[in-house]
Write a structure and sequence with these properties.
Layout: E1 5-9, E2 11-17, E3 20-27, H1 30-38, E4 42-46, H2 54-61, E5 66-69, H3 93-109, E6 113-116, H4 118-126, E7 130-132, H5 136-139, E8 152-158, H6 163-168, E9 171-176, E10 181-184, E11 189-194, E12 199-203, E13 210-213, H7 224-241
Parallel strand pairs: 1-4, 1-5, 5-6, 6-13
Antiparallel strand pairs: 2-3, 7-10, 8-9, 8-11, 11-12, 12-13
Helix pairs in contact: 2-3, 3-4
Amino acid sequence: MGRPVIGITAYVERASWGSWVDVPGALVPHRYVQHVEDAGAIAVVIPPRPDADDGTALEIVERLDAVVLAGGVDVAPELYADERHASVQASRPDRDSTELAIARASAEADLPILGICRGMQVMAVAAGGMLEQHVPDRVGHHEHSPAPATYGNHPVRTVAGTLLADILGEQVDVPSYHHQSVLRHPGYVASAWADDGTLEAMEDPGASFRLAVQWHPEVGTDPRLFHALVEAADRRRRLRSRPT
């Protein structure tokens, strides 16, 4: 039957390679690809589309066995009806529209999905939730994102009885790089917390596999979340291939 195919959302960024300088390219950190393929799947990159809508997103997810909503810049606060905090990064409307549509379409199709950092926030906003725009204002420290391009490391405690707890156990140390977090998450249950009260993971208990984490598992050495996603993708692929 072959391996499951997992889409990973990406940026369009200006990049340089060989003789080509400052050329627009569809980019995602290769660590995402490596983890997905090491876990036994085929990774494909999903570039953002400025014209993305729910119909296009449904066409995308119908061709996939699972999706990873990757990390990146802050979701535009206007999308969850909040005033912009001074710390919020410049918005990327192409990623916002594409990934919000994919989050909605994957929920409709019950496509396995793993949201990572920004991806978790996209999933919450797509469900009608709200974000905390600058975590340090509440917690009084910068441990979740200590410096530009520098990952923090801290423990998170999972919630007993959740899928995440089944995958990772009661506690795990995680690499993190975020200054925002999810405040409200309709349709999801909390599945992990940091010691300072920051929500670190959420999941949909009614879905086959709909899980999001605020940290960055792709930069760490623990592959269990990616293996769990690939296993869910493989189960879905096998069910869809059964003769009716």
